[in-house]
TrEMBL record:
Keywords: Aminoacyl-tRNA synthetase, ATP-binding, Cytoplasm, Ligase, Nucleotide-binding, Protein biosynthesis. It comes from Dactylosporangium siamense. Belongs to the class-I aminoacyl-tRNA synthetase family. This is Arginine--tRNA ligase. Pfam families: Arg_tRNA_synt_N (PF03485), DALR_1 (PF05746), tRNA-synt_1d (PF00750).
Length: 561
């Protein structure tokens, strides 16, 4: 059963008590240091209604006072409202959430259909930390949207087409016995392309052959894509993300649509020829246009993205398209969305979002690189994280068997990498620092995994029980814990709406800290009944909220650590 939060149900009651409030009025209810909750929005409303704020707040207080769940409503300061909730209402909430397998969380995304474009590495190239970020953020969004009832169509828009593959195929054809990895051969071919004009010429002819459907070129291309996608799958397996081979919808798939895209844009007057190229000009004078078709007749990245928008709206029936892509591509997406809107391919009711993320920096504050100076290859990076985590777990549990140690090391190591990435506000640059992400205290994945495991061990000792007695006394820290637990569904809804998984991280971290404060001040197992059972229930709800929340971030919550 869906259990709306206090914030949501009170917002409705407050709005009902304010006949003058405009549609969509937000009373701004938040946790308070002076009471349980505080209402900040009446103040601003009074100003716009030209009413005395304290008087308006007093009227609202009169409506709320004494009616469950409010035990006390007081006007404070210039026109804020402080609300104290009744103990039975708080404890009743704990019981209701515990009784529901979904912890009372609703399905606000039901009926919605989001096409999510994420991960999107490039064939024959190393996946780098930027792709790691896109993969991890995208995976968390897939999980949260799905949990809230939304339909998500995963699109792994891999880079698998373009003139650069002509040069690689040509090189493969000329050196059939070269056994080195594709990524290495790509670099060799590129160097040759730069230095040897005859090879460059042969490469250009190869592109034409490939695009013309030459069977040998296509076969070589296919083998190359397969080798790369096997490597991508290996990274996805190590990461434990939901992406599969079936989610691959690479750039090459749009190739047959590109000529039509160009023609239609020109016919619709959205694009025009300039210096031989077909361009879409933006509104701002002086900015570079979007080049749909180059002067040599070739199509590039923008044309593919325009074809993809049309496909996603018409065929995949998206009502929202989200691109989890590096912030540096913001101008590209602005222009693609704008052109697609003007062409009518992106109707007003379909939302297009560039969920941009910041760069990954090394501990020195510069773009993250490995010692060799390359942008860090992911497999080595993940292996290193797992090795470090395994050492941390082994130090804590010297007697652990090898299998158990390996599994916990993996949970902690991969969890640490994911959490460090997700916890940073999406648009900010993020510091890749293996030491810090593995710390047992502070805002880390390990800290949350430990908080969860500690609760599980208390619950194991408590045995059965945890029936809630609603009219038992409550300490302040217990009230604070109940109110945090109550906000879980609202936080998830905000994460889904704004594509911001870091808000779930902040929430879980605050929850774990509130839990720690509770645990320090309130004995659980030694408390007299019925307080003991109530506290066991609080521990159980916190543990389930933590493990569900971590699960939605794609992070394991092992029973023991
Ligand atoms: N493959 C591109 C890169 O590595 C990202 C693709 C992003 N998605 C898109 N629809 N353009 O930078």
């Amino acid at each position: 059963m869906v259990v709306p939060s206090f914030a949501v149900s009170l917002a409705d009651r407050i709005t009902a008590a304010l006949p003058g409030a405009p549609a969509g009025f937000d009373p701004q209810i938040r946790l308070s240091e002076h009471a349980d909750l505080q209402v900040d929005g009446v103040l601003g409303l009074a100003r716009s209604l030209r009413r005395d704020p304290r008087q308006l707040a007093a009227e609202v207080a009169g409506h709320l006072h004494g009616g469950a769940p409010v035990a006390d409503a007081r006007v404070a300061g210039p026109g804020f409202l402080n609300l104290t909730l009744s103990g039975p209402a708080l404890l009743g909430r704990v019981a209701a959430r515990l009784a529901d397998p979904r912890l009372g969380v609703g399905l606000p995304e039901a009926g919605g259909r989001t096409v999510l474009d994420y991960s999107h590495p490039n064939v024959a190239k190393e996946m780098h930390v930027g792709h790691l970020r896109s993969t991890i953020i995208g995976d968390a969004l897939v999980r949260v949207l799905g949990h809230l009832g939304g339909t998500v169509v995963r699109q792994n828009h891999i880079g698998d087409w373009g003139t650069q593959y002509g040069m690689l195929i040509q090189h493969l054809a000329e050196h059939p016995s070269d056994q080195s990895a594709l990524t290495v051969r790509y670099k060799t071919a590129y160097a040759l392309f730069q230095s040897d004009p005859a090879f460059a010429d042969r490469s250009r002819r190869r592109v034409v052959a490939l695009q013309g459907g030459d069977p040998d070129s296509l076969a070589a291309w296919r083998a190359m894509v397969e080798e790369s996608t096997r490597y991508f799958s290996d990274v996805y397996d190590r990461l434990g993300v939901l992406l599969t081979g079936a989610d691959i919808a690479g750039e090459s798939g749009y190739n047959p649509m590109l000529a039509g895209v160009a023609e239609d844009l020109e016919r619709l007057g959205v694009a025009r020829i300039s210096d031989g190229a077909l361009c879409v000009f933006g509104d701002e004078p002086g900015t570079a246009p979007l080049i749909v078709r180059k002067s040599d007749g070739g199509f590039g990245y923008p044309a593919t993205d325009l074809a993809a928008v049309r496909h996603r709206v018409t065929t995949l029936r998206a009502d929202r398209i989200v691109y989890v892509v590096d912030a540096r591509q913001a101008p590209h997406f602005r222009m693609v969305f704008d052109a697609a809107r003007r062409a009518g391919w992106l109707p007003p009711e379909v939302e297009a979002v560039h969920a941009a993320f910041g760069m990954v920096l090394g501990a020195d504050g510069r773009p993250f690189k490995t010692r060799s100076g390359d942008t860090a290859p992911l497999v080595g990076l993940l292996a290193e994280a797992v090795a470090r985590a395994t050492a941390v777990v082994a130090a804590k549990n010297p007697a652990l068997g090898p299998d158990e140690l390996a599994s916990r090391g993996r949970d902690v190591g991969i969890g640490a990498v994911k959490y460090a990435d997700l916890a940073t506000s999406r648009t900010r640059d993020y510091l890749y620092d293996p030491d810090r992400m593995m710390a047992l205290t502070g805002n880390t994945g390990v800290y949350l995994q430990y908080a969860h495991a500690r609760l599980r061990s208390i619950l194991a000792k408590a045995g059965a029980g945890g029936t809630v007695t609603a009219d038992a006394p409550l300490e302040d820290v217990e009230r604070a814990l109940v109110l945090r637990l109550d906000a879980f569904g609202d936080v998830l809804a905000a994460v889904a709406r704004d594509c911001e998984p870091h808000r779930l991280c902040t929430y879980l971290y605050d929850l774990a800290q509130t839990m720690t404060a509770f645990y320090e001040r309130c004995p659980v197992l030694k408390a007299p009944q019925p307080v003991r059972d109530n506290r066991v229930a609080l521990c159980a709800l916190t543990a389930r909220t933590l493990s569900t929340g971590l699960g939605l971030l794609g992070i394991a919550a092992p029973e023991r650590l």
